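# nightly structure sweep
# worker-07 picked up a monomer target from the shared queue
# config: single-sequence mode, recycle default, output format = structure tokens
# input follows
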Amino acid sequence: MTNNQETLLKVEHLCQYFGATKAVDDVSFEVKKGEVFGLVGESGCGKTTTGRSIIKLYDITSGSIFFKGIRISAGILSYQEDIRKAKAEYNEKIATVTDPTEKNLLSQELKQRIAARKADIKRARFDQKNCDKQYSKQMVAAVNAKYRALLSRATEAEKPALKKEYSNELRKARKAKLVTQIQMIFQDPVASLDPRMTVREIISEGLIIRGERDKKVIDQKVYEMLELVGLVREHASRYPHEFSGGQKQRIGVARAIIMQPELIIADEPVSALDVSIQAQVINLLNDLRHSLGLTILFIAHDLSVVKYFSDRIGVMYFGKLVELATSDELFKHPMHPYTKSLLSAIPLPDPIYEKTRQRIVYKPLAEHDYSVDKPSLREVAPGHFVQCNDAEFAKYKAQLEQA
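# output follows
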């Protein structure tokens, strides 16, 4: 991981509900620039939904997502619920109050609270709708500043070509969207590639949507990406069905990195591949991470892969983030019972160990009593966060002191 501690992605109280189903419920974490952040948990725990919410494939229910310091997604349910709660509390209090002055004071407090929440809703909707416009304005300003300076120093012979380049870059800047700086590698390499498009069309689609029109530039970039992911130029004219699973995933990687993103969301990119091919794709992502300076949100359920590849790991269970720590710390001092359960399920190539390996079964009702003392994500050690209540927090702190 790079020493740069700049926060590239910040997720605050993210909630993603589908009707009564709480797929992601109050998840918060940060991803630093240049690191690999692993997100693990069993199938259905909300990992993929978190990734899809970040890249704006879903409109989030509640919470905020910041990318490069700009809020790119904002949900309004929490604000709406706070308004309903304020009205209920007001009705409960006003029923027992007879003094007109006190009634007036309660009414003013209610109006102020509702006005504040309505302002939050308005800002959330504005940010959701206009984040790309703000980013586009910044890009246009940067292009104008760059090419005006170049034109002022250029000779008369150089100006025509420079003006043409300026016009092309300005058009792309006006179409720029901040979310294109986040790209996703999908879990199923077969389903994520359009079978009716050639590899050239699949990889170049993002460039064309962004406004690139020069066919030579497009072809050259496609060839560069193919070679970068371990394929050859001749593959550009072929269709997805002509490739193996590992090759299809490489095409998916090429499609993502051609946009020169700052953040890659890798959604279980190796789970559908053979073990030997998994290692090749992981090594490819590792090489690209260092050569291109990528930041990666790596979603997986295989903890052994995540340990090898990630700087920090977040563990999800039932839509909640239950533990967050560095890779070494999580494997050395797992705190939450679910994390211990996951680690106990990792097989090792040691028949003697496997004969004696004890699986830990996680039973939430037996492990926790949250009837009165509710849990929250708390820092039990520097950089080590666990979902726990007051009693569990004290217990975890004591365990770490004894370790």
